[in-house]
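Objective 1.3, modelling of assemblies. Example input:
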Amino acid sequence: MAVPVDFDAYLDAASAIVDLPIAPEYRAEVLANLQRTAAIAATVIEFPLADEEAEAASVFCPGETE
Amino acid sequence: MTVTLGSAFEIAAAVRGGATKARDILASTKERIEATDGVVNAFTDLTLVRAEKKAQEIDMMVAAGHDPGPLAGVPFAVKNLFDIEGLPTRAGSKINRDRAPAVEDAVLIRRLSDAGAVLVGGLNMGEYAYDFTGENAHDGICRNPHNPAHMSGGSSSGSGAAVAAGMVPLALGSDTNGSIRVPSALCGIFGLKPTYGRLPRSGTFPFCDSLDHLGPLARSVRDLAISFDVMQGYGPHDAACARKPVLETAETLDAGANGLRMAVAGDYFNRGARPEALEAVAKVAAALSVTREVVIPEAARGRAAAFVITTSESSALHIDRLRTRTADFDPDTRYRFLSGALVPAAWYIKAQRFRRWYHDQVLALFKDVDIILAPATPCAAPQVGEKFLTLGEETVPLRPNLGLFTQPISCIGFPVVVAPVHRGGDLPLGVQIIAAPWREDLALRVAAELQRLGVATAPVATGV
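Predicted structure (tokens):
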């Protein structure tokens, strides 16, 4: 991520928009896990895929290539 | 009792041949559960009334000269995310106990019952299957029967522990990121995660639809094959269930590893493990004369994609419960579900697209090999309550790392048999035998060869 992310602000905004308030007693763990998830997701996000290269198929059939 | 502690196929042979009665098998099963489960804590529900009725039916069929099926009189139990008629499907949670009792059994329970097997109960599991340890805040810790101070592994904790303890010869579990393979390895038994889409999931409580698989755990490869064969077949109520003909795996087991091209997974699968996990793979490879190594490309990213897909889909599934019953979640799953609900869709979609690309790369490897061997877990069963795993100089969080080697494979749905490797007085480990999609028969053949050679064994645990 190019710009440092304010995860505290993101948590507040995202939990409001999905209508899922995070109680104060859970906040620290949720925030830490969100940051871990962002780091893990970044390794997938940064991987280049051409537009026509891979479909996000809702039904996945192993053994069949595109 | 001796027969009860044997394999499912031995029990079935004894019952079908009239050498023993299904009711007697059930009675000794009940004794075995009473003797061991106080410590192990594998069962959350016993279904002995229906079991007694079923056993009686089996005995009457045999007496009348009819064949009750290839699993006649075989006691089995299921992870409690399978619907069992008359019970609320708790899926390891407190919240689901408020659900209405299931009106019928899950499809796979029905198929095993039709083959003569006798359901004796529901089994402990990590809450909503989001677990690798076997710890559960509501139902208590499921312990490793080889040493109850250690973890059973999860999330099919009760399935692994009940089979290892000799309570039942056969159990069903589910595997999204490793939940059949991790407890199979840590409890030292055989487990099969079939190809994604092979077995219908109808009548089970989901975790993550894109990655959920169901499969059997047993102390013998033949039991995996027989039960897998009778459970196969299209199920119209599972959108991901493939229309594939039944693959008869039990009848090809004796072919062993003959003619199969095999390799050990290198790179990613050589790192992040304790030496004993790699030694187990080396032992299996040596027994099979495997010297070749292949690299599964981008395995770490495959694992990352599985992580993102799991957290997004499962949290979306639970979001209403997260809003209304937050305090009733297990503290070990709650923060992960809450966090997953905030993951942007673009991350999830990219993970799904990456998964397709990664699948195609790994599938290409199988042009040159039939089987790839890899460790199942980075270590043997840790002690209950452990939070960190030490790997050489490095200390990593234990919970996610138990799935280090299983997640990159289930991400793309390839079939895997876990072969258990016992190490004298030390706790067992497991080796993944990975095959191409729809070739469970090949993975089972290799596991059968290892069992025949005495390299993979699954003795009844003596720790309880």
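Chain B is about 35% helix and 15% strand.
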